[in-house]
Amino acid sequence: MRWSLSEFLNLVELRSQTWCYVGLGSAHGFSVPHNEHIYFYAVLEGSANIAGVAGGAIELRAGDIVMILSGEAHALRNRKKSTTANLDFLTSGEYADAPPTLSVGLGIGGGHPATRLLAARLKVRWPGGQHPHSIPAVLRVRASDDIINFERLLERAMGSGATALLTRAATLLFVSALREHPQCRSAFQEFDLHDPVSRAQQYIETHPFNRWTVEILAHKVGMGRSNFANRFHKEVGHTPMEFLSEERMKHAALFLEKTDMKVAEIGARVGYQSEAAFIRRFTARFGITPGELRKRSRLAAHKPIEQYRTTFSPPSMLV
Questions:
Q1: Which of 41, 114, 117, 181 is 20 to 30 A from 197 (CA-CA)?
Q2: pLDDT tens readout for residues 254-271
Q3: Which pLDDT tens digit goes with each residue over 78-106?
Q4: Residues 232/197, Cβ–Cβ less than 8 Å
Q5: What distance lies between CA 142 and its chain's CA centroid?
Q6: Which of 187, 205, 225 delimits the end of a domain?
Q7: Residue 202 and residue 183 in one domain
């Protein structure tokens, strides 16, 4: 883990319009398959249990909020041997402007549910693009103990725009709960002791289009410019600006393959004022021109860019 806790939490992005209220009849529930999302459950009335996460059962009562971070398949029931159904709205990630009310096991005539909850499927973008193994599988809080007035939130989360409000509130709950979790504190407490060169690499990889300079990077990791530059070159084998150029070239290749941006636009995006200089640098790095890479991509070759050239060469005209 090479972020400070604040950096990590600022980089996490939660997005969703998949929110719903769910009423469960007695001895009923629903199951969720393995996924790459965060599932959010707040028990509003009654009780429930979640099985299949972290090797055990999670018992919930009214006022409990739980977020499943691990992506494990699980089932939520109000009795241990309840019948479970597939809640299509939730598992397929359907969009809603305001949360609909769904029911499981209440029959055609309806009736008052034994358990009522607020549920969501949250898309998550983790720093670095991968789920961190060091964070907990589950976050759990009591609505009455956290920084959000949950009853007031539910009163306001009605009508147009309600799911956006709920997602922002869920993000705040996520940040608050993760900060307080002992496993999280353990994962981040050694941050200041990590190698400053590794931290500088992480900053460049996370924000490759920032206007980095050696001075800015050195200040960021708490070192003097000369000492930082010498240590970086010794440990990495390239200067900080060469490493930055390499990261930007990787993104340039992705822009060529995945977008319709002009070559000059991509060159400017990755720090070159001259299209010709960008083409020279790209060709030296990958062994083919930007136009040839795009042509091959359009012909559905889809060959990894690393196969063209794996050697590293210094930048020609990096801004």
A1: 181
A2: 999 888 899 999 999 898
A3: 988 888 999 999 999 999 999 999 999 98
A4: yes
A5: 24
A6: 187
A7: no
